[in-house]
Design goal:
single chain; two-stranded antiparallel sheet; about 140 residues; globular
């Protein structure tokens, strides 16, 4: 779906547009909506970040205007490897071996497919989930 949230880099309560786009996608038989630029560059899901798993087993985040969510940031801080970010388009998806969604409310979950590109659960997803769940909560 060609769509971008208003000021995607800022966490704000103005989610009507994003949630509306998700509802339209769900009415069309999809679980969620993937936001892209007019050139096909992927940014995020309605209320989650999306990452892709390269053939070498590395997590790659889209290099696009998006909100760097809390779960995404915690995973990036906790992992002992470089954070990779590349421009990823819809046509690039077949070159990845898996995909993952991250969100503070749902944690880390596997993405089974985007349109006609389908993936099985990659072992990295379980590793990311375990890393995220092992991060000690912060007292506030």
């Amino acid at each position: 779906m060609v769509y971008s949230r208003d000021h995607p880099e800022i966490k704000h309560v103005g989610l009507f547009g994003a949630v509306h786009q998700r509802a339209l996608a769900q009415r069309g038989g999809y679980d969620d909506v993937l936001f892209t630029a007019p050139d096909g560059t992927i940014s995020e899901i309605a209320t989650s970040n999306i990452g892709f798993i390269s053939e070498s087993g590395q997590l790659v985040w889209p290099a696009a205007d998006m909100l760097s969510g809390i779960t995404m940031c915690l995973i990036n801080q906790d992992r002992d490897e470089d954070v990779l970010s590349h421009t990823i388009t819809v046509t690039d998806l077949a070159g990845y071996v898996g995909a993952v969604a991250t969100n503070a409310a749902t944690g880390v979950r596997t993405i089974a497919a985007v349109d006609d590109t389908a993936w099985s659960e990659h072992p990295l997803v379980a590793e990311l989930r375990a890393h995220y769940e092992s991060i000690p909560p912060e007292k506030i």
